[in-house]
Amino acid sequence: MDVVQTERASEIAKRVEEFVRTVVVPYERDPRCGSHGPSEELVRELRSKARAAGVLTPHILPGGDHLTQLETATVLKRSGLSPLGPVAVNTAAPDEGNMLLIGKIGTAAQKKRFLAPLIAGDARSAFFMTEPAADGGAGSDPSMLQTTARRDGDHWVIDGTKAFITGAEGASVGIVMARSNTGEDGDEKVSATMFLVDLPHPSIRLERILDTIDSSMPGGHAVVRIEGLRVLDDQVLGAAHEGFKYAQIRLSPARLSHCMRWHGATTRAHEIATQYACTRRAFGKLLIDHEGVGFMLAENAIDLQQAELMIDWCAAVLDGGSLGTSESSMAKVAVADALFRVADRCVQVMGGTGVSRDTVVEQVFREIRAFRIYDGPTEVHKWSIAKKIKRDTLSGLHGA
Amino acid sequence: MDVVQTERASEIAKRVEEFVRTVVVPYERDPRCGSHGPSEELVRELRSKARAAGVLTPHILPGGDHLTQLETATVLKRSGLSPLGPVAVNTAAPDEGNMLLIGKIGTAAQKKRFLAPLIAGDARSAFFMTEPAADGGAGSDPSMLQTTARRDGDHWVIDGTKAFITGAEGASVGIVMARSNTGEDGDEKVSATMFLVDLPHPSIRLERILDTIDSSMPGGHAVVRIEGLRVLDDQVLGAAHEGFKYAQIRLSPARLSHCMRWHGATTRAHEIATQYACTRRAFGKLLIDHEGVGFMLAENAIDLQQAELMIDWCAAVLDGGSLGTSESSMAKVAVADALFRVADRCVQVMGGTGVSRDTVVEQVFREIRAFRIYDGPTEVHKWSIAKKIKRDTLSGLHGA
Amino acid sequence: MDVVQTERASEIAKRVEEFVRTVVVPYERDPRCGSHGPSEELVRELRSKARAAGVLTPHILPGGDHLTQLETATVLKRSGLSPLGPVAVNTAAPDEGNMLLIGKIGTAAQKKRFLAPLIAGDARSAFFMTEPAADGGAGSDPSMLQTTARRDGDHWVIDGTKAFITGAEGASVGIVMARSNTGEDGDEKVSATMFLVDLPHPSIRLERILDTIDSSMPGGHAVVRIEGLRVLDDQVLGAAHEGFKYAQIRLSPARLSHCMRWHGATTRAHEIATQYACTRRAFGKLLIDHEGVGFMLAENAIDLQQAELMIDWCAAVLDGGSLGTSESSMAKVAVADALFRVADRCVQVMGGTGVSRDTVVEQVFREIRAFRIYDGPTEVHKWSIAKKIKRDTLSGLHGA
Amino acid sequence: MDVVQTERASEIAKRVEEFVRTVVVPYERDPRCGSHGPSEELVRELRSKARAAGVLTPHILPGGDHLTQLETATVLKRSGLSPLGPVAVNTAAPDEGNMLLIGKIGTAAQKKRFLAPLIAGDARSAFFMTEPAADGGAGSDPSMLQTTARRDGDHWVIDGTKAFITGAEGASVGIVMARSNTGEDGDEKVSATMFLVDLPHPSIRLERILDTIDSSMPGGHAVVRIEGLRVLDDQVLGAAHEGFKYAQIRLSPARLSHCMRWHGATTRAHEIATQYACTRRAFGKLLIDHEGVGFMLAENAIDLQQAELMIDWCAAVLDGGSLGTSESSMAKVAVADALFRVADRCVQVMGGTGVSRDTVVEQVFREIRAFRIYDGPTEVHKWSIAKKIKRDTLSGLHGA
């Protein structure tokens, strides 16, 4: 980052941190924080306070430009200091990634209709991509995409089932990914198209909200049945049949923004565990004076430092213009695993208090467990990194 | 085990497994399974079915004798195949340990009054031992015991605060541990006494039920305020001032029975994850045909085998008449850590489904996380094992 | 084990331990312990002392019967208390496995010629199975076997290259595994035959002895070129074309005997590290009083206990008559990984002394590193366990 | 780094890498690479080639200035691509740290006498700091320093025993650390002084060279007896009694330079393992196409990336003028542990070849094992990081 960027990002980050620590944190015990995330009412209340404090959608500048990824890292980590923080200041998934994508490839009309209310914090959005594994649909493997979009006159008609659609309940804006070569015209190559839709929509039925181990995302994660959803061409996001390419554009920054937010949450858990260990005694001394505890906190400090460095490294790669597919896979694996170790140690250091909801540590632990699955489980990323190592090695072996 | 024991235990275990798999498992989605465990009504319903099936309190023989620990392992593992299983067949904590303790040191009158309804499955009990860390009370370190019992005429008067009292809400029987040398008579040595009390009791106030990551124990975990609780001598369990000794007697078997039950639950999670991996496909093949998945399941098989061996080894030590303090510490650490690895891998193998409550795997993961804390966190056990290693080594060095 | 077995094995084990601790251990600093194992002269000297002490080949009874596997475990663990111990008392690989195999399937004449001198401790043997990976030969994957045996009149003629042939240098007896369907007669199915040969032999050339991280095996590990080796039918071990079956018979006990011996060595390393930690001070207290050190020793105690239980469990499976292929894979993975953790912690506890050859801990660490590869790397075993899990699960799913 | 620094460092690093890969690597099989490191003759030969290639002492500029730490990282990683590389180009420990220290605090005369020949690559040096644990001397705990320096007229007289003195054999320059408040004048506070001495010296006797698991350092690691070593004041390095302060100055950069060099060596091991996995087949496909192998290489890529980031982060801290005590502890723990995981996986991926000296992987594994001990074992660093966390937390708790 150059000096101007650093100062700009630091200033925003400082205000976001102040807001999250003083205004958002007390809401963590609000009964409107349910098992499917904070209620819509609570989201509105938090955002209204963020708007007043000038920290709403802090990573997008007034003209619509986004901060660089490195700057975004600085800001999003602070927004994540509470599990409620990202929702409060509008840096949460999936909105953050959806705003980025629409901003990059949407038309002016689409931006006005779909993007503006998201940036204003007046609406939420959902990204209809993954499908139920039980039906052989696309989970981690996008080539298995089964939802179809076929032409019918000047409409597209979309049918399929989507699973794990975060925030679908309560969202006003949806991006639906569907297989657009339906095989009807003999085209065998899989291609996909993205569509923008207003929500709720009579052809999109929320079958159920999954009960999951995590509980920070408003609307939870839905299973959704799409039947005969008709959309016009002006709702195609970008060009038709280019959905996989756009998914790649969204992929790395979205993946990395998860790392940023959860880094903040885990940092907070570490602060809580550290203060606990520095004030409670057992077996004749402060907990932290037991090496068994002190070492865990030292390992936390190292893991948090490493995770931060991986985030910033990958952010710089993205700022350099690369898709960063492999780098963001490496960052996702390293950061998710490191943050889980940290969260797990925080629970352990705090004993009975650690497994209770008396502090936010218990929730952070649950959220990070889910994070090791969301946006691609560790194993899928390792598989993809190994493929790249093979490609690079074989081309080196054969090329020289 | 000799042949007679093996046959007896196998026969009981088989019936318990059949009951849990066919009758209990369907209740796992019953809405009466709340975040503080199954409701009292649900517990009654399950026990009534267990009674009818002849599998209630299966580890205690009609005459009151307990199965050996090795036999108990065989039975309790099966009862644990569902998180609801132990409650259903009355092998759950803390009742199982409390029945063992009262059976060993209670008077005939105490057994009739307090033990009989527990064995009959008509009552639940609570063990009032641990105290809030925030107040410097006894968590893992019993020497910090702050609840006091002082003589007042022919009564004892008990005052203090207890925390993490599992099942206190809804219990009919309580065992209260209190410091019985109050310092008033100049006695500096810490001693403790155990008292049997009927619950609910006006002098014992449930301040709150903790919200915790686990959710299998009826009544959850309570914070309890005891103020001026007056009991007569006939409610002293065993001899006065011998509480720490009795705690030792209860300790190892209770600790080990946790290992047994959770071994069952984790075995079930592994079955579910294995079936998932053998029926779902991604990237062109069954999940289990991906080494990244298959290796995790292989590691599960190894961990479950090792955990079972540690349980049986420790059970045999206890059956041999030893207190098994060190052996049960070793077993607790090894089993809790192994089962957590297994549960974590099951979640990971199942991806999005793994972090959802669509299967019981998600709950098992949460329960086992808590288990790494309950009955002494891993670190306290390692500390105690290291102390023993030092003692043995120094005596060897100096003794020879 | 029944009582008679237990007593018999304990008595032998006790004598073996006494011999290893008092007679063998002082030889650990003998300069004849080279990087390719103890010299032949040293082996003879040690065996002569073992013979005199009545502990030579202690796991084979005078009549030629072997102890049960459970008994063998008791004895071989003690023989392993020094890396020199197994060679000294003739329980070392590959002789131990070769004696077992020839004893099981050799003819009377073969036993007299090849087995008797091995049992007497007058000869060593080698098992010519694995082949160089560089040439695409059979490493962990036996189906890649490239050494061929073809009929020529009443002879077999064997050609090929073998790698990692432990103890080939100095051995008098060899078992050579070769592909015996040469494709000449249109037989596509891979089959193999085992041959017994006297060594050294002019048609078997030791190309080089590998320099390896381990250094306990006399003769080291050789790369061997076999060219036009002619043998008669009476040198076929068992039946022709049944080599893979015999390899399976040898496999599990040989694999498990490695676990037994290395368990002994690692136990010794743990004793040394424990005594070190109980006598050295840093930062104001004994090393063991630092939890960072004490916890490592506690983890060692747990790992050693678990490894012992896995060995005994697998031994009992083999004694029950099963091939134990999957069980010995599970035991190999669990034991090799556990012993490596133990050895690594011993090094760490002892700091600079741990990485020096001032104690045998450094060698044990190196040996166990190699052990994680020898007899099948961990990954091959996990692959094979996963295959079994799949088979069992699918048959369960389809069978019900 | 600014642009000028980046270009300068890249250019040097490129030349160093070219030299190491083409000139040094073939020497790895030179028989003069012994178990106590390369012989003096071999060192001279390598350095003569480095001098000719213009890559000798590449991190020190002609005028005597050192590259920044960030630049040094770039260069030293490349020098480490072979275990012989640092010795060849004169970036090895302990010379690199000794040159830095003498350069910072030596007098002009001292620099001429002791530093110039080191920079010219004509001499080697040793740092006499650590003492034998067996005698209760200073290992990781400097407060236990037992070697004494007492005034005798205008001389200092030094007595003591030092252990693990890397490169003492063959060194021309020594820095000796001794306790300089001898208690004679009633001064209770421990202080230490550093002295520069010419080697070999009749009062400094090499008692023995330790046999250790590592083998890259010329001269190995010596145990040294210092008896009545008399030095004049002009041989005091810096001010008397300030030895602990100077040790701190040397500490972090020396620690970090280990990380840099071993990062290079491990990168090389990873390259070798990757090429192995991309060219060898087992069970029907290339090794790397087995997820069990591919995942290990992916984990290597992540670990190497993280280690590099930690090194650069700590280098930047040092370049900012901080002592970086805590940061270099964090970097040491993270990097040593990560590199060990990488080296261990490389061995495992390569199977039998991995544990043989057919490639340099086996040596790298052994070197990195020692590195987890050298310059402070992981546990000492965690202890020190935990102390800092406690200080920071308590000051935060009390300060606000």
Structural write-up:
The structure is a homotetramer of 400-residue chains. Chain A has 400 residues and is of the alpha+beta class. Chain A has three domains: 3-92, Butyryl-Coa Dehydrogenase, subunit A, domain 1 (Orthogonal Bundle); 126-241, Butyryl-CoA Dehydrogenase, subunit A, domain 2 (Beta Barrel), CATH 2.40.110.10; 244-399, Butyryl-CoA Dehydrogenase, subunit A, domain 3, CATH 1.20.140.10. The first copy, chain A, is built from eleven helices and eleven strands. Chain A has helices at 3-24, 40-53, 69-79, 85-89, 95-105, 108-119, 243-277, 291-319, 325-354, 361-371, 378-399, and strands at residues 33-34, 37-38, 125-128, 148-152, 155-166, 173-179, 192-198, 204-210, 221-232, 281-282, 285-286. Chain A is globular and about 80 Å long. The mean pLDDT of chain A is 94. Chains in contact: A-B, A-C, A-D, B-C, B-D, C-D. At the A-B interface, strand 10, helix 9, helix 10 and helix 11 of A face strand 10, helix 9, helix 10 and helix 11 of B. Chains A, B, C, D: One of its GO terms (biological process) is fatty acid beta-oxidation using acyl-CoA dehydrogenase. Chains A, B, C, D: Residues 126-211 form the Acyl-CoA oxidase/dehydrogenase middle domain.
